[in-house]
Amino acid sequence: MGEGAILPIVPLTARDLGASVAAAALVVTLIGVGSLVSNVPASIVTRRFGERRAMVGASLWAALAMLLCMFARELAVFSLAILMIGMSAAVFNLARLSWLAEAVPVPYRARALSTLGGVLRIGLFLGPFVAAAAIHAFGALAAYGVGIVVLVAGALVARSVGELPTPGGAAASRRVPLRLAEVLREHRRVFATVGLGVVLIAAVRASRQGIVPLWADHIGLGAASVSLIYGLSNAVDMLVFYPAGRRMDLRGRRAVAVPSMMIMGIALLAMPFTHSAPALLAAALLIGFGNGIGSGLVMTLGVDHAPVHARTQFLGVWRLLSDVGATAGPALLSAVAAVAPLAAAVASIGGVAFAGAAAFSRWAPRSVPPAAPSTSVDS
Description:
Growth Hormone, Chain: A; disordered C terminus; 2 domains; 18 helices
């Protein structure tokens, strides 16, 4: 919710500080850049201080960054604050995922992580509406005030969660954790196979955010129609996360991974043939459904493959792969659109979705992971 509250206002603040349109768009990307460069350091921070303290620290760091946004009088200072928000997101998301990986029993893992993905979508959806009310009452910078309040609340919630016992007991606590280079070497096959699917699904997910508005503009729809279609697509995305997690728990990860990518691929390939609002809405709803049933998929696959004694290091690399895909997807869309019609650019992302379906069909686990003894958490 904190991130959702500020996302619409970030480019406007950058413009007020003297940025051009292109520079304002670049400032927005700094959240992703901050997360991308901080994923591996986040694993070190989480390993050193523990999941609970990492979540609390990351929440307060982001709140400090938003306070800096409110009082920034130079574009460089504001840009640094936005970068700090991305850094905090990397630490918080990794620590939260690592905590859930240990706290949730294996038979419920996919449901827990798909719910995590679902509530993230809900927070991003609600944030702008809460910020809009604050902006109406107090002015544009009040959006950052909303972010600060909810992040401090998030820190309090994180502080209240139980400490996790060391996985495996005292013997595991004495085991020397693997270095990052060792994690990369020992799990290189997983990173090169299932990890490739993660890169591809992240590329499709990131690209779809821009594809629907761009194609709507291409066929001449107005801003109100674009917003309605985009909002309805996101609403469908939010509604199907729990059934998807349940299916993953009962039928295996591949049973959701492949259909998710296939559905988005079909919708993206169909989009260039839509020339009216109802037709585009149908394609956008299909994209939202395909993405929604994949809620929590990347996190679940990461936790499934992560070694207990080097979980944070592994998940740091896993998140890095996801962020690489999220950066590469829109870049591919932009590059193809620069030299070919927009329809070809949209179709190219559809092709990426089918490549992801093929990767998951080949390498995603077909069976459900075996159950392990659940870890009790101090209340």
